[in-house]
Amino acid sequence: MKTLLVVDDEVGITEALNDLLSEEGFHVLVAPNGRGALERVAERRPDLILLDYMMPVMDGREVLLALQRDEVTRDIPVLLMSAVPRSSLPPECKPTAFLRKPFTIDRLLTEVGRLLGGPAKP
Q1: What CATH number should be reported for the domain holding residue 19?
Q2: Do 64 and 94 touch, CB atoms closer than 8 A?
Q3: What is the pTM of this model?
């Protein structure tokens, strides 16, 4: 069973993604901000991180850079989610993939499947 980490400060989004991805057969971890995300990654390495860009405490850019600096976590794929266009991201912010909010369930599952190297269902 693949483990996904959903990182978003909006509880409604984390709950919806947790429910959806759990129903698809994934083990889902949740973190409310970037600092929490790094703590979760240290506890259990996820197969994929779904990361919101704009969050308090530690934003998506900071999390992405921290993951990329660490040899242990740099190869974890990161799907960055944001309402801002990808072209607005700073040049050093290089996620594995980008998903513009709002997105459809089909688009999300397609990206998750692609990043995990197969269909959305594990």
Answers
A1: 3.40.50.2300
A2: yes
A3: 0.92
Asked if pLDDT for residue 119 goes beyond 70, the answer is no
Q: Which domain holds residue 72?
A: 3-115
Phi, psi dihedrals of residue 104, rounded to the nearest 5°: -90, 160
pLDDT in tens, 58-96: 999 999 999 999 999 999 999 999 988 888 888 888 899
The answer to whether residues 76 and 49 touch, using CB atoms and an 8 Å cutoff, is yes
Note whether residue 67 is domain-resident: yes
d(CA 46, CA 48): 5
Tell me, yes or no, whether 16 lies in a domain.
yes
Q: Is the pLDDT of residue 122 over 50?
A: no
- Residue 52 CA to residue 16 CA, distance in Å, equals 14
Total structural domains within the chain: 1
